[in-house]
Structures are given as C-alpha cells and as structure tokens.
Automatic annotation (TrEMBL):
Residues 598-614, 750-766, 796-805 have a biased composition (Low complexity). Residues 596-816 are annotated as: Disordered. Residues 2-357 form the Protein kinase domain. Residues 701-715 have a biased composition (Polar residues). HEAT repeats lie at residues 366-404, 523-561. Keywords: Kinase, Transferase. The lineage of its organism: Eukaryota, Viridiplantae, Streptophyta, Embryophyta, Tracheophyta. It comes from Salvia divinorum (Maria pastora). This is Inactive serine/threonine-protein kinase scy1 isoform X1. GO terms for molecular function: kinase activity. It comes from the Eukaryota. Residues 659-672 have a biased composition (Basic and acidic residues).
Amino acid sequence: MLKFLKGVVAGSGAGLKDLPYNIGEPYSSAWGSWVHYRGTSKDDGAPVSIFSLSGSSANDGHLVAGRNGVKRLRTVRHPNILSFLHSTEAETLDGSTTKVTIYIVTEPVMPLSEKIKELGLEGSQRDEYYAWGLNRISKAVSFLNNDCKLVHGNVCMASVVVTQTLDWKLHAFDVLSEYDGNNEAATGPMLQYEWLIGSQYKSMELSKSDWSAIRKSPPWALDSWGLGCLIYELFAGMKLGRTEELRNTTNIPKSLLQDYQRLLSSMPSRRLNPSKLLENSEYFQNKLVDTIQFMEVLNLKDSVEKDNFFRKLPNLADQLPRQIVQKKLLPLLASALEFGSATAPALTALLKMGSWLSPEEYGVKILPTILKLFASNDRAIRVGLLQHIDQYGESLSAQMVDEQIYPHVANGFSDTSAFLRELTLKSMLVLAPKLSQRTISGSLLKFLSKLQVDEEPAIRTNTTILLGNIASHLNDGTRKRVLINAFTVRALRDTFSPARGAGIMALTATSSYYDATEIATRILPNIVVLTIDPDSDVRSKAFQAVEQFLQLVKQFHEKTSGDDTGAAGTLSSMPGNASLLGWAMSSLTLKGKPSEQSTLVSTSSGVPLSSSISNASSVTDEANVAQVRVNSRTDLADLSDNPPPASPTSTDGWGDLDNGIRGEQDNDKDGWDDIEPLEEPRPSAALASIQAAQKRPVSAPKTQASNSRPKSTVKASKDDDDDLWGDVASNTKSSKVVDEDDPWGAIAAPVPKSSSKSLNLKSSVSAGDDLWASIAAPPPTAGGHKPMSGARGRGAKPAAPRLGAQRINRTSSGTS
C-alpha cells in the first residue's frame, strides 16, 4: 500500500535497480510496442506481470504515449480493468546511446490469445467461456464510456489479458483520452495518440480523421467498433488483417450476429452501446455466466435462493469447463464458505470440485478452507464436514488433525444430538490413525468409554466397531487395558443384539493382540455363553469365534508341548482378521433408542456404516414384532421375551461378576475400569493349588474377601479419574507368571474347574459343581432361556442353580 501511494504521489520510481520485482521470461505477444514479461516479487515471491516500453530518448513519442497509459492505468480502477501495482522509468546505456525504459508492474496476467490456445476449449464450452469474457470486457468498456466519459480507442484482442482466475481484463491505455463531444469548436484530434492504432482497427470516420463527426457521435461509438473487432478475432481464431474482413460473419454465432452487426454500423450514432449489448443479447445467457454472476452477488441472495443454488451446483459443475470451475468457481466458493455467506450444501460442491485438483493444488486451495470451517459454530457445517470426511481425510497431515481438527471434532462426542454424536464417532475411523498416542489415551478413549454406554444402541455398536478398527493404532499397554474389557464386559453383555455381534467380530478381528491366558480365561468363557443367544446371527458369530480362538489356543498348546518354556506369548491371528476395516464401513444399519431396543428393524447387511445413525423417529413401537427372526448382521433381535444380559447403559461393571448378586454396588461408573474384579482370582503358580482351591467348599472368610474386592475397586476408580481402564494391565502382567509345570495340558483336561477359577466364580461354589454341565443341561436347567432370566438373583437361590447361571452370564434381572 505504501508503495502504491508513493507511486501515485511521486510518479515514476527511481530506476530499475530499485524495482522490487524480478523480471522473468517474456510472452510471445503484447499490445503495441510493449513487451510483456513474467515476474515475481522480491519480498515474497508472489507472481506478477511486468510490461516494458523502450525509447531512444525521453521525448520519444511511444514513451510519451506510454506515460499516458501508466497515468491512466494507475488512476482508473474497475474489477474488469487490469490492476496496477507499481511503475518506474529507468535509463540504461546501450553502447554509446542512452536507452529509456518504462516499467509497469501489474497483477499476474497472460495475453488472451495465448490463454485461449492453452485452454483448448471447443463447442459449447468455448462459446460459454467467450460469452463470459466478452461480458467482462463489455462492462469495462461501458464503465469507461458511460461513467467516466473516456474513450479507450483501441479495443481488440491484444488489449485484453487473462488473470489466474480466467477473468478477462482490459488494458493498453496509451490512447485513452477524454471524450470532448460538447466542445464543438475544437478542431484538433480528440485522440492525441490515435496514430498508435492499427489501420485495420480504425472505424470509417477515424480512418478519415473526421473529428467533427467523431465529436458528434456518442462516447461509445469508437469503442463499440473495437468490440466488434474483438468478437471477430475471437471466433475467427486469428488477428484481424484488414477492415474488410469484418464483413465475414461465417464464424459468428447466430445468437450474437445481430448485435455484432450493430456494433459495426457504418453510422456512428447507430452503433450499439456496450451496456445494451449485455442486456439484449441472448448469447450472454448461459450456465457459466449465470453461475459466476450468482456467486459474485451471493451476499444479496436470500437463504432459499442460496440453498437451491448450492444443491444444484455439484451437478452443474460437471457441465461447465473444468479449468474454469477449478480456477474461477472454486476460489469464489471457498471464499464464500470461509466468510459465512455460503450455506452448508456448498461444502458438497467444494469437495467435488476439489477432487479434480492435483494433491499440491488441493493442499493450497481446499485444506485451508476446511481447517477454518472446523472452527465454525454452524451445526450444519459441522455435519457436512463429518459426513464427507472420507473425501479429504487422507489429505490431512497428522499435525493438522492432532492440533487443529480434533479439538473441534471432539465437541461432537458430547453433543445433545445423537445424529452428530454418531457422525463424530464414525469420523474417528479416518482421524484416529493420525492422532498422537497422548491424544488417543488422554482424550479419545475416554469419549469412547462413555459412548459404549450411550443411550442409543447404534452408537454403542459403532463404538465397538471403531475400537476394533483403531486397535492397531494403540500402543501395547493401551491395548491390554482396553480391548478385552471393552469387548467382553460392554459389548457382549449389551441388550442390543447387533452390539453383541459387533463385540464378537471385534474380538476375532483383534485376536492377534491376545495371549493364550487371556483367550482361555477371559475371552472364550464370555463368547461360549453367546452360543445360546436368542439371536441366530449372534449365535453364528459366537460359534465361529469359539472355533477360531480354540484353534489359537491349540496352536499354542502344540507349540509349548514341543518347547516347554511355559511362556504365554502372543498368538498369531487366524486368516480373515484383516477384513475388519471393510466390516466397519459397511456393516450395521442401526436405529432405535434404549426404550425401544426390543423393536425389530430388518435391513440389508450391505448398507454402509454411515447409515447406522440413531433415529428415534424411525423406530416402531409395535410389540408383536417378536415373531420375526433376524438372519443378517444388521438385524435387530426382538428381545422382549428373552432379554439378554444387562445393558451397558447401566454402567455396573465387572465388579458384579455373579451377574447381579451385588448389582446394587458400583453402578455409578462409566469407564472400563469397573471390570477389575474379573481378573482378581487368577490361576496360581502351582496347578495343584488351583485344583485344590476349586474343589474346596466356599468358606465364610473367602466370601468376605470376595465382597471386599468391589469396594476397593470403587475407591480406586474414584482416586484415579483419568484411568478409565483400571488396573487391567498390571493384572494381565501377573497372569503370565506360571510354574515350571505345563499349564496348557492341565487346562485341556479339567476345563470346568480351571475355567471356573479363571472367571472368578467364588460365591457358593460346592465341590461337586460342574459349570459346563449346567450349560449343556436339559431344558429344565438351560433350555427355554430360563437360567438367563433368573440368573441375577440376590443370593436367595440354591448354590448349584445360581452357579450355573453365573457361567451362562446372560441375564439382566433376577429374584432377590
């Protein structure tokens, strides 16, 4: 700005050495005697255009006219006139003679003739672009003639340049003069430098130097003729050679022909005013012109007009010239979104146009706008960003996501709208891999812990799916603390059958992260009970998972049988686990709310995950849908007659291993740390001691110790609010300590006893109980789902029936 003010006051600069721009390669064409160079700023490297005009002396006629052009360009400002930045005049020695050169620095532009060749447009797209360009030039000429009472004098293709956004702009003001038509006494030339105009561009009265007729003509007479010459050169594809060539109208579009002839009327007074050209010609009414003009006056449109326009824009963009969409419409659209004048549907059009850019251009033109939009308080914008995150997520850097995007996205986890919570959850599938471990452990996992007990069943299910997908991005310690607890305690005990199915699939997909001890003592016992789940799809998944995990344990048994090291190492996953990502993206379509979890909604399993959004309005309240059975993974089982275990929304954790006997305790926790009592009674180092402890009758001191453990868990949870996952990691570590004996062969032999010890079944266990026999018992014991509905008693049941119900682990209510 200071440079511009200095130029306005002082005129020319000090010389070429003080020019704050670097002069680059010249273009092949320019107006008159000027040379058009590419250039860059010495300060920031920004591109510019530099025009130079040289003369043998300061009084050279071309230089005098050039100074007039510099003065006019500096003072005349219009959106369709070339923007002036800087000018200077320098003297250089060329041998023994002095050479004077004028330099003009403007915004970066390119000669129109070269830009047309570069674009290579054809057919209707070419005509649409020409219409847009002629619209711009006609407005510039109308501004000079009608508003400023100035005459350009030499409108032609050489006097038009094209900006980086493909806008046409008028320049070459060397001949520009005031219109003095009211001065009838004047006899001299109205255009002082008319000799610079090529003879082929001169109208009849100008070629005859009939200044009297020119002064009696309207101000636009000479420039209307110039517009006619420009139109001819555009459609002929060549420079005008002789004035007579203007009679050839073969290439002129029919919709423009009549106006073209009126522009070139032999009578100056009858020539068409450039302002009327825009109003009368149907040639200027096309999709490209209408679209750009709407965008330029967007602030004047109401919300209804904006919504209708932006909803049509994605399809309309396919019909417009691709280069114009990228270089003209895209910047307008990005600016409108940043400053709030565009509505949320505009985001869809922005991302579609951005998909046509190269990765480098995308990072410059699209990502800065997206980063700004994430800070928007407009809920519709936030929803749009999350819905389309798969289109731009890969282009985001880890630093962008961790520092600029996630802090804003995380607000959606606590939003009152279930729709927005669901979108926020699913966006983590793209964003989580780019988050730092500190952000994942300190923030993301805490939100996911709360979402696993969300009131919306779809959100609980998708949280389990997400955890399975991002497991590979967690560190080892976090995986030990989180995965089994989240999948077994929360997901497998959910009242929503797709949530239980998702828990099983998540366990199988992350099987490579579990060692043999965890599989045998924590995973298999929880999956086996789902083989009698009321939902057939859950039962099928449970059987498949049992087979897979048994195979893994068998592999470990065979390995340790040959190498008696006794180390419970991590097992390799079975084939097929790598498909979890596709499953999470296209698995469940879930709708409903907790009060309606018994409602059946049967949908296709191929529906994308993006459709699995809670929608209370779509849930039916009919009670007789229990007759329908579900077969796909997206079916919601009607559990009204056969209720599964307690919903995670109760948040009573694994402190109540006996399925409700102490259910009234610890019901205020919301983290995954409430499962700690599950691992308290682990197999001891000596296998003989384990078996003896299993057979020993339950004594009063042991019951007391069992009752005291949940209380200590509550205290630990309150003292450490930041650790939602509990002390599972340390307990897991201790579970790996074994004796010199081979524990795996022993587990294969007395399965019921080692399993009961591993699953913390420590209340009212008699020496003759057989847990697995109770599951496989005839209908009076395990059939008809009676044990599941009565398992959560408060201690009033006999020891054997209650113990069997504990192993089934499938009810949410009991008799106190």
